Amino acid sequence: MGQLTVIQIAEQAVWTVLLVSGPLMLVALITGLIISIFQATTSIQEQTLSFAPKIIAVLVAIVFFGPWMVARMTQYFQDILNNLTRYIG
């Protein structure tokens, strides 16, 4: 296995991780921003206020994006397994 092949596999792995984790991170970011704006406008400075809405929002996002995330990871894993003989020998 050459250096180019290793770099391509690593690049594909990084892109897969970014695509799979991206929607959840974006939902958490947007939820945190909304809660921060709410806290700033109402002068509520409770640190634990942002945790529950973020957790709920991420859980809803997992339910919504979960099948797509599993399909994407399964596709990557199948691609690795299908090309395993080419990578090894």
Tell me what you see in this structure.
This protein has 89 residues and is an all-alpha fold. The chain has one domain (3-88). The chain has helices spanning 3-42, 51-82, 84-88. Helix 1 (3-42) runs antiparallel to helix 2. The chain is elongated and about 65 Å long. The model has no long low-confidence stretch (mean pLDDT 91).
Can you tag this structure with a few keywords?
single chain; 89 residues; mainly alpha; 3 helices
Structure class: mainly alpha
Mean pLDDT over the full residue set: 91
Instruction: Outline the biggest β-sheet.
Output: none
Q: C-alpha Rg, in Å?
A: 19 Å
- CA-based shape: elongated
Taking the alpha carbons of the first and last residues, their distance comes to 7 Å
Beta-strand fraction estimate = under 5%
Instruction: Detail the poorly predicted runs.
Output: none
Count of all domains = 1
* DSSP, total strands: 0
Task: Determine the fraction of residues in helical runs and give it as a percent range.
Answer: over 70%
Number of helices: 3
Strand and helix order: HHH
Ordered list of secondary-structure elements with their pairings:
Layout: H1 3-42, H2 51-82, H3 84-88
Helix pairs in contact: 1-2
